[in-house]
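Long-time lurker, first post. I've been practising inverse folding by hand and with some scripts of my own, and I keep getting stuck on stretches where the structure tokens seem ambiguous. Below is the full token string for one chain I'm working on. Before anyone asks, I'm not after the true native sequence, just a reasonable design that respects the backbone. If someone could post their per-position residues I'd love to compare against what I wrote down in my notebook.
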């Protein structure tokens, strides 16, 4: 709903006004291609994306997000569901982070911008991942290389399933 970028930007500004930092970051936001009203400049009546948390056709904090990007010299761009899934898998495989697809959109977007040469000098990039993978378990199930294993809800059964026979 564009609330994260809006609230985060407000927090950064307040932190600077309190004298806690001297510089502000450039805010980058990413919407799914099938649900990208800010990128398109018009509401999306029937938004479509596998990233359910950002499947929003008319964000409540639209103006705040646009203001955050304008004030910070940032941008809002769109990423495809395929790019989101690739980033989703990368976060899990390389960082051990089980994020929901909407959170993985931030990595997908940064990778897309990096591929375009957007970052022209060494840069520190911080991704704020706000959603855990259990928020959207269907994606995890469909992306898994093997089917789920049913395990009895006991410590002994879990240990056996993990190969720690006692």
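-- Answer (accepted) --
I ran through it position by position. Result:
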């Amino acid at each position: 709903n564009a609330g994260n970028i809006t609230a985060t930007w407000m927090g950064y500004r307040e932190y600077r006004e309190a004298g806690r930092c001297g510089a502000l970051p450039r805010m980058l936001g990413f919407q799914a291609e099938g649900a990208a009203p800010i990128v398109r400049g018009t509401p999306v009546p029937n938004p479509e994306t596998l990233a359910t948390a950002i499947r929003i056709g008319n964000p409540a904090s639209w103006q705040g997000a646009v203001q955050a990007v304008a004030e910070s010299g940032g941008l809002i761009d769109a990423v495809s569901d395929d790019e989101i899934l690739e980033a989703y898998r990368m976060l899990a495989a390389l960082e051990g982070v089980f994020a929901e697809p909407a959170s993985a959109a931030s990595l997908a977007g940064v990778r897309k911008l990096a591929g375009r040469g957007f970052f022209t000098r060494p840069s520190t990039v911080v991704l704020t991942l706000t959603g855990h993978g259990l928020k959207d378990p269907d994606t995890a199930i469909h992306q898994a290389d093997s089917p789920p294993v049913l395990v009895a809800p006991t410590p002994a059964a879990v240990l056996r399933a993990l190969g720690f026979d006692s």
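A couple of notes from the structure itself: The beta strands are 28-32, 75-79. The mean pLDDT is 95. Happy to go over any region you disagree with.
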